[in-house]
Structures are given as C-alpha cells and as structure tokens.
C-alpha cells in the first residue's frame, strides 16, 4: 500500500524561502523539531511550520504576505464582519446592522397589545370592522355615487347605467355586501366574474345570487370609487400621487393599524410581489421572482 511521502526539512525551507521572503532571518521561529543537532538532515520528516514574523512595531504578522492582524481587524470592523482578538485568534460576532452603532438604537419601552377595547362580536367580521369601519364605508358610498353621476354626464348611454339609479345610488349596506362578495371571490375561484352567478348545476354557487343580482354587482363594481377623479392632480405636477385613487383608504388603514395594536419589540418585515399584469403605474418586472410581473408590497 502506497504511503504519502512527507517533506524533508530542506524542502520545507526551500518552499518557505520562495513563498514568504523575510528581511531578518533571526525573527523567524520554527518548530522545536527543527533543531540543528539532528543527525538525519536529509530524510528527517517534520510537520510543516507556520511562519510567525515579528515586525518592528510590535505587531504580529501571520500567513502569506505578512498581513497585519490590526489592519485586518480594522477592515473587518468597517465592513461589519467582526474582528480578530490579538491574544488567541477568536473572532468577535459581526454587527448585524453594518456600520450602525448598537448603542444608538433606542431601548424598547412600549407595552405591546391592543390599544382599543376588543369588539363585543369577537368574530372575523368583528375584528375586520376595527380597520374597515363606518368612516371607510361612508367614503365608498360618497365617491361611488359621485363617480356614477360623472359617468352619466359624459356617457349617458353607458351600459351599466341601465342598472343604476343616480338619484338613489348605493348605500352602506349594499357596499358591505359588495366587499363580502369580493372577499368570497378570493376563496371560490372561477374563470370570470359572470360565472359566479351561473345557474349551471356544475358551476352554480348559490351564495352570490342570494346576496346580490349579477348585473347589479357588475354596475356597482364598475362605479366603485375611493376618490374624486375630477380633483386628481395631473402627472408632472408637484401634487401628483400615483396612489391618488386609493390614497384616502390607504391613509385610513395606516392610521387604524397604528392605533388599534401596539407591536412587540421584535418584528419581521418582509416584502412580497403580488402578481398583476394589468395597467398600473407601479407594476414591476423582476426576472428572478416566481411572479415576474406584479406589484411589490
């Protein structure tokens, strides 16, 4: 059986002279096995030593090229990778915040939990109304009726106006039914909006017909609005906002989320891409995502 050949002392010295030339041979220390009193200089086998060079400034230089430990330590600290202990070579844990000093992070003093009384109706609908309350519903009703009148002024023969009475419009009860239907559509998957009202024995889902007629839903969903189109700032103006159409609803949700519940100290915030191929100003194309077209949330 072949055994791996070990290096002799002369071969080791020749390799060290080629790789790490030093100016002062007296500063280089080797293993005690490399004594000059050895009689078998040619065939003696010794472990490969690691040169340790002492510089004039008192710093210890290790490894190839003689890089300073202190220099490496300062560079690691600047990059947030931790530093090397000069005494025993242990590494300090890296700073997870990069260059941010942990002492500058304020101490968590809040008390996490609910900031408002729990609803008496402790059901999913009861908790839902903590965020989508009457203020939001009234805004939906106001802007939806306003938009239907604007459409009638510009397009009096619009198809869905046949199922709409601009004098009465919609109300809060019907708006809540609309939201319920939209949430149910996210659970029951069908190819088209009209197919939810199909009476075919295979495709039928009685829930939708019981809540609202099909044409009434399509008309209400067409006119459903959150903000006044006639007051929208034009692109390029200082007040232009890509979220203008949903800004009141978005701002209200932000206020409710911050006032209903106070978060804990440790939080994990992650982003996600919602698939979307329609026309929207902030749609993105990210080639490495599973859903390449969508809106990053």
Concise structural overview:
31% of the residues lie in helices and 7% in strands.
How would you explain this protein's 3D organization?
This protein has 297 residues and is mainly alpha-helical. The protein has eight helices and eight strands. The chain folds into three domains: 9-103, no CATH class; 124-262, no CATH class; 268-297, no CATH class. A three-stranded antiparallel beta sheet has the order 1-2-3. A three-stranded antiparallel beta sheet has the order 6-8-7, with no helix packed on it. Strands 4-5 form a two-stranded antiparallel sheet. Strand 2 and strand 3 form a beta hairpin. It is elongated. It starts with 8 loop residues before the first helix and ends with a strand. Residues 1-97 are annotated as: Disordered. Residues 123-297 form the PiggyBac transposable element-derived protein domain.
How many independent structural domains?
Answer: 3
Strand order of the largest sheet: 1-2-3
Query: Could you give the distance between the termini?
Result: 64 Å
Shape: elongated
- Level of helix content? 25-40%
Largest sheet: 3 strands, antiparallel
Radius of gyration: 37 Å
* Count of DSSP H/I helices: 8
